[in-house]
Amino acid sequence: MSEPAGILVGYARCSTDEQDLTAQRDRLADLGVAEDRIYVDHGLTGTNRARPGLEKALAAVRAGDTLVVPKLDRLARSVPDAHAIAGELAAGGVRLSLGGQIYDPADPFGKMFFSILATFAEFEVDLLRMRTREGMKVAKANGKLRGKQPKLSAANQRRLCQMHGTGEHTITDLAETFNVSRATVYRVLAAAGAAT
Length: 196
Known about the structure:
- By secondary structure, the chain is of the alpha/beta class.
- It has two domains: 8-125, Resolvase, N-terminal catalytic domain (Rossmann fold, 3-Layer(aba) Sandwich); 154-191.
- The protein has helices at 22-30, 52-60, 72-75, 79-91, 108-141, 154-165, 171-178, 182-191, and strands spanning 8-14, 38-42, 66-69, 95-98, 101-103.
- Strands 2-1-3-4-5 form a five-stranded mixed β-sheet, sandwiched between helices.
- Helix 4 packs antiparallel against helix 5 (108-141) and helix 7 (171-178) crosses helix 8 (182-191).
- The longest helix is centred in the middle third of the chain and has 34 residues, at 108-141.
- The radius of gyration is 26 Å and the shape is elongated.
- The N and C termini lie far apart (75 Å).
């Protein structure tokens, strides 16, 4: 592997607001990236290409520069996206450093290794999604995941229908009385079969 040329621009990302970027920032500093040249995205997944920090990092690099990321999964979590970003960088004469290893798109072994890393990053995301769906299914079966709760209690829904049935209250009156939107009033009436 040859030494990076030009300016080093760093990129770090974490998926949730609760996660900390300190370890990634420290790794980028260890790789020679100046603090003022590190761009970050906080609370954005790697599957989302619309990331302000990534856009700024990509805009900051010029031909001869190197984009440095601690690991490939910080840059992209899908194979097509990883290849698209790497292709854009290569087309612009920008090198890509993955944790200190320079990715060379002209090297067949480098391309294969990059594709394997991207495949594993995507596989990780797919596993996470599958586990989340399974967890939600179990929670729902155990009564711990109930979904969105109605805006009105069952008693208030009955009262709303009764008031509407008298013909003395408009939909707007009912919405104001129960502090809900007109759409909610219509939904309650429709569910009760009383909508007019």
